[in-house]
Design brief:
10% strand, single chain, Alpha-Beta Plaits, 4 domains, alpha+beta, Taq DNA Polymerase, Chain T, domain 4, 11 strands
C-alpha cells in the first residue's frame, strides 16, 4: 500500500477530484484492521491497478454511506490540514532548551551521588540492582516479580516513599533520566534550520482513528507533570503571536452519556456539575459538597477505568487497593449509572453478532472471534472503549476540518500548530482581535456535533506551551 501512497499523485492528475486516495480509503473501509500492503490489497479486491482498486472502493463505499461520509468529508480533507500543520511546525527557544539540558544533567549528577551514598556502588538506572540494594541493605519490603526480581516500578515504590525517603530520589532520578533521554536529546536533534520542530502526523496507525505523531512524537510529552511543563516552556510562539490551546473537556465521558442515554450522567453534565465529584458522591455515599479530593481522584480513576473496560484487578492495581474493594467500587458505579452497564452488555452482543463496532460517525472496528466463537478479554476492553475513544477522535478530526474552513482559510493570522488528541494548539496574532478569534474557534469546536449533553471547550493562552498547563 506504500506504493499506492507514492503513486497517488500520478493517479489523481488523471482523475482529479473523482478519484479516491486509495491509501486512506482502504484504511477506512478495513476498519483499521488491514495490512496496508499493495500486494495484499490488490489480492483482496482482485484487482491489478490503482484505477480498478478505486472503482472497487467506490462500490464498497456505496454500501456503507456513513463510512463514505467519514472518508470524504473528514479523513480526505484532513490530509491538507495536517500537511499545513507539519509545515508550520513549532518554534523552540534553543537557549532555554540548552539551559534545561544543563540543569537536568546537574540534577542527575547530584542524585547519582546521593543514591551511591545511600545504596552503595549500584547503577541507579538498573531496576535489578536498585531493588536488591533496597531490600538487602535498607530492608524495604519489596515484592518479587515472576522473573524473581524485586518489583521497583513507581506503583510499588511510591506508597513506600514516606517511610523510606531515598525512594523519592530514585523516582526523581528516573524521571529526570527519562526527561533527558526521551525528550530533551531527541527533540534537540529534530530542530530544523528554521528553529522549529516539524512533527509528522499519521492518519492510518491507530485503529481507533486517533492521530499519532512521530519524528518526533509531540503528543507524548507529559501533561500536568513537572517534567512536561519544563519541556513545554521551551516551546514558544512566533514573535508577535500568542499560543492558544483549545481542549475538549471530558469529551469521552460526554460521549458515553450521549451514547448510553444514561439520565444521571446527562443530568450531571447539563447542570454543569463536576462529573468526577458527582460520581464520588454516589460511590462513597456522601453529599456532592462534602466529597474530598481523595474521593474525587478515586472516582476519576473509576470513571475513566470503566471507559476502558477495566476490571477488578486493573482498578485495584491503579488505586492500590484490594481487588474486592475495587469490585465494590465497580458495582457502585454501575448501580449509579445502570444504562452504562446495559450499553456495554449490548455492545458486546452486537459485536459478536455483526463482527464490528462503530463510532458515532460510522468508523468501524473489526471484531475477531476465537475458535469457540467468543471474544477474548483484551478485545472486550477494546470493544467497550472504541465507541467513545473512536468517536472522540472522529469528532476532533471533524472539528479540525470545520475550524480550517470557518477560521483558518479566511484568517492568515491564525495557525494550527499541534493536535494532542483532545486539544488543539494554535498560534494567534497577539492584537485586539485575539479574544474574538479565540471565541470563534471555541464556538466552531463546540458546534461540530450536537449531543444530548453540552460540549465544552476550555481555552488557555500564554507566551509558551508550558504556561498553558
Amino acid at each position: 500500500m506504500k506504493a499506492i501512497w507514492d503513486l497517488k499523485s500520478n493517479f489523481q492528475k488523471h482523475h482529479n477530484q473523482s478519484v479516491f486516495d486509495c491509501y486512506l480509503a482502504e484504511y477506512v473501509l478495513s476498519g483499521g484492521d488491514h495490512e496496508l500492503t499493495q500486494q495484499k490489497t490488490f489480492a483482496v479486491h482482485e484487482v491489478t491497478d490503482l484505477e480498478s482498486l478505486a472503482k472497487k472502493q467506490q462500490e464498497l463505499f456505496a454500501k456503507y454511506p456513513k463510512l463514505h461520509d467519514l472518508y470524504l468529508h473528514i479523513e480526505f480533507p484532513l490530509v491538507a490540514i495536517l500537511c499545513a500543520m507539519e509545515k508550520n511546525g513549532i518554534l523552540v527557544d534553543r537557549k532555554q532548551m540548552d539551559a534545561l539540558a544543563k540543569t537536568v544533567a546537574d540534577e542527575i549528577t547530584q542524585l547519582t551521588k546521593d543514591l551511591h551514598h545511600a545504596l552503595g556502588d549500584v547503577n541507579p538506572a538498573s531496576p535489578a540492582q536498585v531493588g536488591k540494594a533496597l531490600f538487602d541493605d535498607l530492608n524495604v519490603p519489596l515484592k518479587k516479580t515472576r522473573s524473581g526480581q524485586y518489583a521497583t516500578g513507581e506503583i510499588e515504590l511510591l506508597p513506600l516513599s514516606k517511610e523510606f525517603p531515598i525512594i523519592k530520589k530514585i523516582l526523581a532520578f528516573r524521571q529526570l533520566s527519562k526527561l533527558t533521554n526521551t525528550y530533551i536529546v531527541p527533540l534537540v536533534e529534530k530542530i530544523g534550520k528554521d528553529g522549529r520542530i516539524h512533527t509528522t502526523y499519521n492518519q492510518t496507525v491507530a485503529a481507533t482513528g486517533r492521530l499519532s505523531a512521530h519524528h518526533p512524537n509531540m503528543q507524548s510529552i507529559p501533561s500536568n507533570t513537572d517534567s512536561g511543563r519544563r519541556i513545554k516552556k521551551c516551546f514558544v510562539p512566533t514573535h508577535g503571536f500568542v499560543f492558544a490551546a483549545f481542549d475538549y473537556s471530558q469529551q469521552e465521558l460526554r460521549i458515553l452519556a450521549h451514547q448510553t442515554k444514561e439520565a444521571a450522567l446527562i443530568a450531571a453534565f447539563k447542570s454543569g456539575k463536576d462529573i468526577h465529584r458527582a460520581t464520588a458522591a454516589e460511590i462513597f455515599h456522601t453529599s456532592y459538597e462534602k466529597v474530598t479530593s481523595e474521593q474525587r481522584n478515586a472516582a476519576k480513576t473509576i470513571n475513566f477505568g470503566m471507559l476502558y473496560g477495566m476490571g477488578d484487578y486493573g482498578l485495584a492495581r491503579t488505586l492500590n487497593i484490594a481487588p474486592e474493594e475495587a469490585g465494590v467500587f465497580i458495582s457502585a458505579f454501575y448501580q449509579t449509572y445502570p444504562r452504562v452497564k446495559s450499553f456495554f452488555d449490548e455492545l458486546l452482543k452486537t459485536a459478536r453478532k455483526q463482527r464490528y463496532v462503530e463510532t458515532i460517525l460510522g468508523r468501524r472496528k473489526v471484531v475477531h472471534l476465537d475458535s469457540k466463537g467468543q471474544i477474548d478479554s483484551g478485545q472486550k476492553r477494546e470493544i467497550i472503549n472504541f465507541p467513545m475513544q473512536g468517536s472522540a477522535a472522529d469528532l476532533m478530526k471533524k472539528a479540525m476540518v470545520d475550524v480550517d474552513a470557518q477560521v483558518l482559510q479566511t484568517n492568515k493570522d491564525v495557525r494550527l500548530i499541534l493536535q494532542i488528541h483532545d486539544e488543539l494548539l494554535f498560534e494567534i496574532k497577539d492584537d485586539r482581535h485575539t479574544q474574538q478569534v479565540c471565541e470563534q474557534i471555541k464556538k466552531v469546536m463546540e458546534d461540530t456535533y450536537k449531543m444530548d449533553v453540552p460540549v465544552e471547550v476550555e481555552i488557555k493562552t500564554g507566551g509558551s506551551w508550558g504556561e498553558l498547563e
